[in-house]
Design brief:
Layout: H1 2-17, E1 22-23, E2 47-51, E3 56-58, E4 65-72, E5 76-87, E6 91-100, E7 107-118, E8 121-126, E9 132-134, E10 139-146, E11 150-155, E12 163-165, E13 168-174, E14 189-190, E15 201-202, E16 204-209, E17 214-224, E18 227-248, E19 255-266, E20 270-276, E21 282-292, E22 297-299, E23 303-307, E24 315-316, E25 327-334, E26 338-345, E27 351-360, E28 363-370, E29 377-384, E30 389-396
Antiparallel strand pairs: 1-8, 2-16, 3-11, 4-10, 4-13, 5-8, 5-9, 5-11, 5-16, 6-7, 6-10, 7-14, 11-15, 12-13, 17-18, 18-19, 18-20, 18-21, 21-22, 21-23, 24-25, 25-28, 26-27, 26-29, 29-30
């Protein structure tokens, strides 16, 4: 008896492996279901929406293609689609997406996945992970082709019709008089021959994700001719207003140091660069804050660059920001050790502040000037040592 049970267990285990592409059979009494509020979900989280039901069973049929047609009104990323079938034998499956500019026009094949040796059995057959961007204003036939007789399922007389979903509307079933017959590989184009507005939704699951506003493919920082050059590339952009460049050190928080305009919406690769002339000695960290036209934003990963070389010139940088109120940062470089003085003067030559006055090592430094007790106007700030003098203007605007 134990031997019989052992053989039976092995048989069931091996048999179950043949259903690797299937999900468990659902309740045969299940009614039509879909996301009750498709516009409310966690951003950047895959959303599964189920259309049709398994309450009406049809097949076998010589027309072996089933699915649904959708009008996209909100751009989304299609990452998987499934069809509920009861295949009587093992089948070669094609999961396809056709795109068209009008409901009754010609549709072009834009995505296809071949799943050979699927089934047999009843359950959800899956395309597996895919990646296709659904565009607003376009029509999509999303369906599955199979080369064996199989039972398929739908729900008819759905009211109201069409059916709203997170990315638009389901407007027709794929699988009546004009359903494509099985073809391997799928035909490059399809043209429907009958308008289907009779309220058919085949039992199908559509899985989508939010489109990434900007797909960043690279982001680097390198020392080039005594400056730090940032370079980054994007593969695609959607409503991209631009990038704020942010920098920090081990001792400071991120702050914005510049802005580079984006390319709005484009499917072409774009390259960007930014030259930072006001970095600190030591390790500098950079990140990009990508900003959409609607004000939403997201951050890139951080990149770092180690600046350990000593400055070769005596230099006084322009204060940041300028104009300022009431504080500004002033950066300066000292190529040789010695006494250094950094002072602020009004336009009549009166010294109103002393920021640095004493011995300095070689290096690049940054100090903060607080003008809370001064009036709006133009001021001069001067850096001097035994061998060098530099002066610049800054504007206090209260």
């Amino acid at each position: 008896m134990k031997q019989i049970l052992s053989v039976l267990f092995v048989f069931l285990f091996v048999f179950s492996l043949s259903f690797a592409q299937l999900q468990p059979v659902v309740d045969k009494d299940a009614v039509y279901t879909k996301n009750p509020n498709p516009t409310v979900y966690v951003p950047e989280t895959p959303l599964e929406e189920v259309f049709g039901s398994n309450q009406n069973i049809f097949g076998p049929s010589g027309v072996r293609g089933r699915g649904n047609t959708f009008l996209c009104t909100t751009p989304k990323k299609l990452i998987e689609h499934r069809l509920y079938l009861n295949a009587g034998a093992g089948t070669n499956m094609w999961f396809v997406v056709y795109e068209g500019a009008s409901f009754n026009g010609t549709y072009n094949l834009v995505n296809s996945v071949n799943m050979p040796n699927s089934g047999p059995g009843e359950g959800w057959y899956s395309s597996g992970p895919i990646d296709y961007d659904l565009q607003a204003g376009m029509y999509y036939m999303i369906y599955t082709l199979f080369d064996v007789n199989a039972n398929y399922y739908n729900q008819q007389a759905i009211a109201p019709y069409p059916i709203d979903c997170s990315f638009g509307q389901l407007i027709a079933g794929v699988g009546w008089n004009w359903s494509p017959v099985y073809a391997s590989p799928p035909n490059p184009t399809e043209t429907p021959t009958e308008v289907l507005l009779s309220g058919v939704a085949y039992y199908q699951t559509i899985v989508t994700d939010d489109l990434v506003p900007v797909e960043l493919t690279s982001f680097t920082a390198n020392v080039v001719n005594d400056f730090i050059q940032l370079n980054w590339q994007t593969a695609t952009e959607v409503n991209n207003q631009g990038f704020e460049i942010e920098r920090r050190t081990e001792a400071t928080e991120f702050r914005t140091i510049g802005f580079v305009e984006g390319n709005g919406t484009t499917t072409e690769q774009s390259s960007y660069s930014y030259l930072d002339k006001t970095f600190d000695q030591g390790i500098n960290y950079y990140r990009l804050k990508q900003v959409d036209y609607d004000g939403s934003y997201s951050y890139s990963n951080e990149v770092e660059v180690d600046v350990t070389s000593s400055p070769t010139v005596f230099d006084l940088a322009q204060n940041f920001p300028n104009p300022f109120n009431p504080t500004a940062n002033i950066k300066f470089s000292v190529p040789e050790s010695g006494n250094v003085k950094l002072s602020v003067y009004n336009l009549v030559g009166e010294e109103v502040a002393v920021l640095v006055n004493g011995f300095s090592q070689v290096g690049t430094f940054e100090v903060k000037f607080d003008a809370s007790n001064l009036s709006t106007g133009v001021y001069l700030y001067k850096l001097q040592s035994a061998n060098y003098i530099q002066t610049k203007k800054m504007m206090l605007l209260k």
